[in-house]
DNA sequence: AAAAATTTATCGAAAAACGATAACATTGTG
DNA sequence: CACAATGTTATCGTTTTTCGATAAATTTTT
C-alpha cells in the first residue's frame, strides 16, 4: 500500500547491479539500497532524474501508487 | 528539462481547484502551488500518495522525466 | 471594481535525503 | 574452508528540503 518503489524491477530489466547504478548516478550503494527496498519516505527530483536518465525510463516506471485494500478484503 | 511536475495537468482533467485539492490532501494552498509550478525539488511519498489518491491517478501521471535537449538543438 | 483564486515570498520547525562508514548476510569461486 | 563480490542494515552528522503559518502580490472571474 502507499507508494511503491520499483527501482529494483527496472534494474533487473536493465541488468544492472546496485554498485554499478549507484556509482553511475553518484549515490552510495547504501542509500540506493534504502530506495530499492522501499525504506525511503521521499525522494529528491535530482535523484529521480538521475535514475530515469541512467535506466532510460520514466518516473512512472519507478514509482507506483497502490490504493489501500478495502478492510474486509477476502483472501 | 529534468523532472516535470504535471499536477496542474491532472487537476485540470479532474476539474478541481487548488484550494479544493489542498484542503482534501491536507496541504496548504501555498505549498501545493510550489509543487504545481515546478518549484519543489523533492516530494514526500506521503504527499505523492495523497495526491494520487485524491486525483485517482498514478505517480506517472504527475511526474515526468524530460531528457536534456542536445546542445545544438535547432530552433 | 470588487471578490475570489492563485502565486510568491519569508520565517521557522520538523523531517528526511544523502554521505561516510561499518557490520552483517548472501552468493559464488577456487 | 577461505576469499571476494554483492547487497542489506544500521549509525552518525551535515545539508537540504518539505511543509505549516502567514501575508503580500498577482491573476482571474464576476
Number of DSSP helical runs of chain A: 5
* Average pLDDT level of chain A: 91
Q: Any idea what the radius of gyration of chain A is?
A: 14 Å
Most extensive interface, residues per chain? A-B, 22 and 22 residues
Give the quaternary arrangement of the chains: homodimer
Order of helices and strands of chain A: EHHHEHHE
The CATH class name of chain A reads Mainly Alpha
What's the main sheet of chain A like? 2 strands, antiparallel
> What order do the strands of the largest sheet of chain A run in, or round the barrel if closed?
1-3
Secondary structure category of chain A: alpha+beta
CATH architecture annotation name of chain A: Orthogonal Bundle
CATH fold-level assignment of chain A: 434 Repressor (Amino-terminal Domain)
Q: Spans of chain A of 5+ residues with little confidence (pLDDT < 50)?
A: none
The CATH homologous superfamily of chain A corresponds to lambda repressor-like DNA-binding domains
Amino acid at each position: 500500500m502507499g507508494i511503491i518503489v520499483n527501482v529494483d524491477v527496472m534494474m533487473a530489466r536493465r541488468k544492472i547491479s546496485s554498485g554499478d547504478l549507484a556509482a553511475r548516478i553518484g549515490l552510495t550503494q547504501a542509500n540506493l539500497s534504502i530506495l530499492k527496498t522501499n525504506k525511503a519516505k521521499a525522494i529528491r527530483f535530482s535523484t529521480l532524474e538521475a535514475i530515469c536518465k541512467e535506466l532510460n525510463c520514466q518516473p512512472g516506471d519507478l514509482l507506483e501508487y497502490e490504493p489501500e485494500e478495502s478492510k474486509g478484503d477476502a483472501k
